[in-house]
Amino acid sequence: MTTTALTARNDAARPVGSDTVLDVDGLCVEYAGAGEPVRACTDVTFALRRGEILGIVGESGSGKSTLITALTRLQRPPAVTTAGRVLFHPQDGEEPVDLVRLTPRKLRALRWTSLSIVLQSAMDALNPVMRLGAQFVDALREHDRSMSHTAAWEEARRLLGLVGISADRARSYPHELSGGMRQRATIALALACRPELVVMDEPTTAVDVVMQRQILAQVLRLRREFGFAVVFVTHDLSLLLELADRIAVMYAGRIVELASATDVYRTPMHPYTRGLRDSFPPLHAPVTRLEGIPGSPPDLRALPSGCPFADRCPAVMERCRTELPLLEPHGGRSVACHLHDEGIRP
């Protein structure tokens, strides 16, 4: 990707307003076990603006999926949120609600109408023994009791059309659709009740690159049309550079850098972010040797006392091994790295 194209895309996608739809503060999630609980997310803090796409990226085991199941209250035992809050700010001006402490009944009322989720595997997310349209009808009539059965079927066909699926496919079963069609159908289903926030958990993982591009283009188009905010989780940083307004980089359960997509591409501040960026070959640049990130992520059951990335970091200092860096603001972005405390560029 060229830097000119990246800048133009981010300028076009920047949200109009700066009001907040989701405010996450000090969120911690642990997994209980026979021994000491394992903390998979630690002190996660960020704010999401209306209409913004926030990408969350990191290696497997960095805490991405744990974070989004905690945000949407979909985690199951042994996972439990032990600290922090997730404030959802309704667009109608009502008082913000803490999703962490919301009762199941009130949470159910918010799902689909205010916040929804697109899961990684569409075949697992869709009911295999129900026609596709019937699953839309269930969601629509559950949240709008005044909608007739006929009107709900018409709306299901219209929603499928929004993601490029023929209306007659509403009568199909999930196994009769291609993988790309199933994934697009789950996106349409998530938008059925016009939510303000859509959480997407690696929705393009199971499709080929051509379908991936189509899905991303449709997400951007639908975001412009309906104005919803997106939390988009993936392990593919190159994908987020084209899609997201801002990117949160996670490592060992913590956010280690939070910046605009342009800043992450041009001037990553954390050595881990730089390693992720340099792991993907550029489309328009001289051929160079790719440098991966050596080693493996740390065991969350036995994290070091200092920076968890220290053993893999090419710019490690003695301080890094004994003192944990905290996420601190640095000129419109945030980073957790002692290199910037010392004023040293990685």
From TrEMBL:
<dbReference type="GO" id="GO:0015833">
    <property type="term" value="P:peptide transport"/>
</dbReference>
<feature type="domain" description="ABC transporter">
    <location>
        <begin position="22"/>
        <end position="277"/>
    </location>
</feature>
<dbReference type="GO" id="GO:0016887">
    <property type="term" value="F:ATP hydrolysis activity"/>
</dbReference>
<keyword id="KW-0813">Transport</keyword>
<dbReference type="InterPro" id="IPR017871">
    <property type="entry name" value="ABC_transporter-like_CS"/>
</dbReference>
<dbReference type="GO" id="GO:0005524">
    <property type="term" value="F:ATP binding"/>
</dbReference>
<keyword id="KW-0067">ATP-binding</keyword>
<dbReference type="Pfam" id="PF08352">
    <property type="entry name" value="oligo_HPY"/>
</dbReference>
<comment type="similarity">
    <text>Belongs to the ABC transporter superfamily.</text>
</comment>
<dbReference type="InterPro" id="IPR013563">
    <property type="entry name" value="Oligopep_ABC_C"/>
</dbReference>
<dbReference type="InterPro" id="IPR003439">
    <property type="entry name" value="ABC_transporter-like_ATP-bd"/>
</dbReference>
<dbReference type="Pfam" id="PF00005">
    <property type="entry name" value="ABC_tran"/>
</dbReference>
<keyword id="KW-0547">Nucleotide-binding</keyword>
<protein>
    <submittedName>
        <fullName>ABC transporter ATP-binding protein</fullName>
    </submittedName>
</protein>
<dbReference type="InterPro" id="IPR003593">
    <property type="entry name" value="AAA+_ATPase"/>
</dbReference>
<dbReference type="InterPro" id="IPR027417">
    <property type="entry name" value="P-loop_NTPase"/>
</dbReference>
